[in-house]
């Protein structure tokens, strides 16, 4: 399985508003993808930082998720937001 853990780090409240505005649909579409085991994006104590945890069945399903995400409304609206991610293979 492929695990992604990390953070979305917004520069300002406008970027954080974009996350709030588009997150529900992004989560719905991601959870509907083949190979998505779990997907969580949660607010933290800092209103500009969001915790991200993803788990996909394999490299192929994770790669397909990345392609879909980049081409989505979420991808275009949030592309300027800093992403600090670690990706690893887990059993």
UniProtKB/TrEMBL annotation:
Q: Which InterPro entries match?
A: ABM_dom (IPR007138), Dimeric_a/b-barrel (IPR011008)
**GO MF terms, alphabetically ordered:** monooxygenase activity
TM segment ranges:
none
Coiled coil stretches, renumbered: none
Tell me which residues make up the ABM domain.
13-66
Keyword list (alphabetical) reads:
Monooxygenase, Oxidoreductase
Do you know which Pfam families this protein is assigned to? ABM (PF03992)
Protein name per Swiss-Prot or TrEMBL: Antibiotic biosynthesis monooxygenase
């Amino acid at each position: 399985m492929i695990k992604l853990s990390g953070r979305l780090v917004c520069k300002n409240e406008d970027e954080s508003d974009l996350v709030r505005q588009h997150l529900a649909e992004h989560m719905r579409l991601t959870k509907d993808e083949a190979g998505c085991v779990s997907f969580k994006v949660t607010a933290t104590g800092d209103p500009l930082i969001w915790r991200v945890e993803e788990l996909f069945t394999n490299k192929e399903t994770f790669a397909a998720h990345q392609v879909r995400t980049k081409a989505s409304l979420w991808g275009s609206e949030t592309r300027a937001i800093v992403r600090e991610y670690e990706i690893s293979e887990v059993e």
